[in-house]
Design a protein that fits this description.
single chain, about 260 residues, alpha/beta, five-stranded mixed beta sheet, four-stranded parallel beta sheet, 12 helices, 9 strands, about 45% helix, about 20% strand, Aspartate/glutamate racemase family protein, MaiA/AMDase
Length: about 260
């Protein structure tokens, strides 16, 4: 079924309840002919860890918000949940949902994994907006996925704000990316779907020769591959790294 504003594909996006980055970045990342429906994941748990786990474990319920809308893929725009749940739980849940729904289900973490696979990266660098415990969980996750995490650079969280990660600035993210040493990594991921990363990627698409992606950037790329039935490859991923298509939309939206 063709949707008027999404003739190439409609993505159902699941976003954490207070996230202020997912929808604006996706609006700039989608190519012509691809559109999204967004649903918010909610939790009343008092701690960030408990909320993140709620988001992942209630993924089928959150996806039910789309009812019978003709979506072509589901994008889970939250990486912290994957880090705390771990590889086995994430893979099992994604497999169950894909079997039940009959469409691709793409987590942000798995999208980054696909990006690393596309360019054959084994040694990776991470730019983390997280507190220490979540950064450690992220390193453990990527290690469990088979990568050697050789470098980690930390962004400055916005203490005292409504949310210390979602209130981070692109300038802070860019500074953390610039601080990542070159030469010992084959790919770089800027973590978290709440940290603004499109400007930093346009400003520094490579650390040395290592391509730079982020959770949102990779999730959009992988979702577009899914809905257009295009195989992920180094060629189409590196085009996204260089900002082909979306870079112009970003500059127009940001007045640059």
């Amino acid at each position: 079924m063709t949707v008027e504003y999404a003739p190439r594909g409609l993505v159902g996006v699941l976003t954490p309840q207070a996230n202020t980055t997912v929808e604006p970045e996706f609006a700039m990342l989608w190519p012509p002919g691809v559109a999204m429906l967004n649903a918010r994941m909610t939790s009343t748990k008092p701690t960030i860890i408990a909320r993140l786990l709620d988001y992942l474990r209630d993924l089928p319920g959150a996806a039910a918000q789309f009812a019978n809308a003709p979506i072509d893929a589901i994008a889970f725009a939250c990486t912290g949940a994957s880090y705390y749940a771990g590889v086995a739980e994430e893979d099992a849940l994604v497999a169950r949902m894909q079997d039940a729904l009959g469409i691709p289900v793409i987590t942000a973490a798995l999208a980054v994994w696909d990006a690393f696979q596309a360019v054959g990266a084994e040694r990776i660098g991470l730019v983390s907006p997280y507190p220490d415990d979540l950064t450690e969980a992220a390193v453990g996750y990527w290690t469990a996925r088979g990568f050697d995490v050789t470098e980690v650079s930390r962004g400055a969280m916005a203490d005292g704000s409504f949310h210390p990660i979602y209130a981070m600035t692109a300038q802070g993210a860019a500074a953390a990316l610039a601080a990542l040493p070159a030469g010992n990594v084959q790919a770089v991921a800027m973590l978290g779907t709440g940290m603004p990363t499109l400007g930093p990627i346009l400003g520094q698409p490579f650390v040395g020769e290592a391509p730079v992606t982020s959770c949102m950037h990779a999730l959009a790329w992988r979702s577009v591959c899914a809905v257009t039935k295009t195989a992920p490859s180094a060629e189409n991923f590196l085009a996204w790294v260089r900002g082909e298509g979306w870079g112009a939309r970003y500059r127009e939206r940001m007045g640059g």
